[in-house]
Design a protein that fits this description.
alpha/beta; two-stranded parallel sheet; about 35% helix; about 10% strand
């Protein structure tokens, strides 16, 4: 499992850190790595969370060029939708949890 962004070095938004801490997952000290630092052939599944999957075309993570399964979850960006309230962060956190559980079930089913 790895986590990366199109651009590296972006810190975790404070609201995201707060709601993940509520769920027992401390992420405040994390930052994103660059996708360019990873080798696409090392992955079976690649997930884009922000609807930016088309930005992978022509990169070292172009889904058409490698044999991994790809899905774009197109999650909302809480700071853009509700910067003064943590309810959107909580909603997206809970949506991610459901999607991850579904992904794990799908992976286990394939195995």
């Amino acid at each position: 499992v790895a986590s990366a962004g199109i651009e590296a070095g972006t810190g975790v938004k404070e609201g995201a850190a707060v709601v993940m801490e509520e769920a027992g997952v401390p992420i405040a000290d994390f930052s994103s790595d660059a996708m360019a630092d990873f080798n696409a052939s090392d992955f079976d599944v690649v997930i884009s969370c922000c609807g930016c999957g088309s930005r992978l075309d022509g990169t070292n993570f172009d889904p058409a060029a490698y044999g991994f399964d790809f899905d774009d979850w197109n999650l909302d960006d809480p700071p853009a939708t509700d910067p003064g309230d943590l309810s959107e962060y909580r909603r997206v956190r809970d949506e991610i949890k459901v999607k991850v559980e579904e992904l794990l079930t799908a992976i286990k089913t394939k195995a």
